[in-house]
Amino acid sequence: MSVTAWLDAATARIAAAQGLEKREARLEARVLAAFAWGVTPAWLIAHDRDTPTDAQIAAADALLTRRLAGEPIAYLVGAREFYGRPFEVSPAVLIPRPDTELLVELALAHMPPGQAVEVLDLGTGSGCIAITLALERPLAQVTALDRSPAALAVARRNAARLDAEVEFLSSDWFAALGGRHFDLIVGNPPYIAAGDPHLNRGDIRFEPLTALAAGRDGLDDLRRLTATACAHLKPGGALLLEHGYDQADAVQALLRASGFHSPRSWTDLSGVRRVSGGHLSE
Ligand code: GLN
Questions:
Q1: Taking CB atoms and a 6 Å cutoff, what residues make up the pocket around ligand 1?
Q2: Is residue 85 one of the residues assigned to a domain?
Q3: Atom 1 of ligand 1 has which residue's CA nearest to it?
Q4: Which of 6, 49, 107, 269 is most buried by a 10 A CB count?
Q5: Do residues 30 and 117 both lie within one domain?
Q6: Based on the domain organization, do 119 and 256 belong to the same domain?
Q7: Ligand 1, from 81, 85, 93: best to mutate by most atoms within 8 Å of Cβ?
Q8: Is 54 domain-assigned?
Q9: In a structure prediction context, what are the per-residue pLDDT tens digits for the chain, which is 282 residues long?
């Protein structure tokens, strides 16, 4: 069986199983074959008539079977790109989303280059937010916390591999922070309502539920974070939180109730109000 024959067959099966366009299914088939055979997707194109060994076919088939059962591509290959850099991911962490790059952009706008701003990332997961901020603003002092030891291990490996200086803390939200204060606090907390049918669809089924679901209305963690963040911000400090597509008004109200000034929301690439934030008075 040639490289092309394997890719054609895999593309058809992925498209049928995942309800994807042929073009997207082909991309997935290429990613799986490239990973299974330790080659680049470009190699596959240049070597389309090569005949992989039986062992190579078996390795690619094994990944394909898992993909057909719904496992996310990012977990199958153990990586996902975020803000132009490759991050290791495992089922212990949420797969970084392009939506979250909006939160990163807004955070960077609050971090003037050349200043040693102190920044905290709540529920760092893979570490994608904290590590990106540390790499984009080398003078910033970035702290990242998570309550999951397995997630922290992934985040620490990402920081080491990407050469980012981030302080990692094992902490259930602010619990282990003592009296520390920051200029900026950011986070992409769980915000899906516990009964939301999306939790039973697609990639999300394989991601850690604790990273996704937050009580009956999805606002449990956002309520906790808005209420407690002021105690860990310096005067004039800012809080930026990612949230669900329909939660901007609720999060703005929570920010206002906790003493944040002029709360506002920002729109992501799909036109959804995806991040809200406010600041304390000087
Ligand atoms: N901070 C990580 C991310 O944005 C993890 C977020 C989470 O697990 N809810 O991808």
A1: 94, 96, 100, 123-126, 128-129, 188-190, 211
A2: no
A3: 124
A4: 107
A5: no
A6: yes
A7: 93
A8: yes
A9: 999 999 999 999 999 998 889 999 999 999 999 999 999 989 999 999 999 999 999 999 999 999 999 999 999 999 999 999 999 999 999 999 999 999 999 999 999 999 999 999 999 999 999 999 999 999 999 999 999 999 999 999 999 999 999 999 999 999 999 999 999 999 999 999 999 999 998 889 999 999 999 999 999 999 999 999 999 999 999 999 999 999 999 999 999 999 999 999 999 988 999 999 999 998
Look up the pTM and report it.
0.94
Minimal-distance CA residue to ligand 1 atom 10: 96
Going by alpha carbons, the residue nearest to atom 5 of ligand 1 is 125
Same domain, 140 and 37: no
Which residue carries 């990692």 as its tokens?
168
Amino acid at 44: L
The alpha carbon of 190 and the centre of ligand 1 are apart by a number of angstroms equal to 8
Q: Are residues 199 and 266 in the same domain?
A: yes
How crowded is residue 84: how many other Cβ atoms within 10 Å of its Cβ? 8
List C-alpha distances in Å: 3 to 10, 14, 68: 11, 16, 19
Say how many Å lie between the CA of residue 189 and the centre of ligand 1.
6
Residue at 131 is within a domain: yes
3 state SS of 204 = helix
Residue type for position 245: Y
Q: Please check whether residue 78 lies inside any domain of the structure.
A: no
Instruction: List the one residue out of 238, 272, 265, 232 whose CA is nearest residue 251.
Output: 265
How many domains does one find in the chain? 2
CA nearest neighbour of 211 among 189, 196, 242 = 189
Q: Which domain holds residue 45?
A: 3-70
| Nearest atom in ligand 1 to 94's CA | 8
Residue nearest to atom 4 of ligand 1 (CA): 188
